[in-house]
Amino acid sequence: MRAKNKQAFQTLDLAYMAIGAVLIAVCSWISIPANVPFTLQTFAVFFVLSILGGRRGTISVLLYILLGAVGIPVFAGFSSGIGVLLGSTGGYIIGFILMGLAYRLIVRLPGKRLWVEIAAMLIGLILCYAMGTAWFMVVFSRQNGAVSLATVLAWCVIPFIIPDLIKLALAILLSKRLSPVLKIRPSSF
User: Fold this and answer.
1) What single-letter DSSP state applies at residue 70?
2) DSSP β-bridge partners for residue 187
3) Cβ atoms within 10 A of the Cβ of 187, count?
4) What is the value of pTM for the model shown?
5) Would the pLDDT of 8 be above 80?
6) Which domains does the chain have, with CATH numbers?
7) What is the pLDDT of residues 159-180, one digit of tens each?
8) How far, in Å, CA of 188 to CA of 65, rounded?
9) Which of 35, 40, 142, 184 could be stapled to 27 by a disulfide with Cβ–Cβ 3.0 to 4.6 Å?
């Protein structure tokens, strides 16, 4: 009987992670076009991490990226493929993995307290910005010539700070409200 229960939990984890990846994909399609499009991807990543925990949430992010890499149109603007990941904004998508890893590592030690969760998400967001900005500078410079850090920050980070902080707050609020209703069992962080 124990083996059966353990298998059921593993299957449930797979279902949660698949749903998390789908949620990120759907939120990436909700977009306001810009040089780097405004999407609800970061909201979905924050929400998935908060509701599923660091381990399942990070695997959901990886699954989302793998789906896009193999050609399923899950990225912003219904785009997909390795070309998107290797393009100038691909570093921000890869940065979602850093968000998940940071969340998992930070929340794991002191536990999933609200202030710890917010700090973990903020640090993850900073890591995502750093990864994406560095990536953008390298790719953009190779294609168009040198670009300054200040210019890239003005294009790709500064316009997104306030919206991303709002998305973070909404994701945490929503996950706290839905957790008791959805009864998603906790995972190891």
Assistant:
1) T
2) none
3) 17
4) 0.91
5) no
6) 2-179 (1.10.1760.20)
7) 999 999 999 999 999 999 998 8
8) 22
9) 40
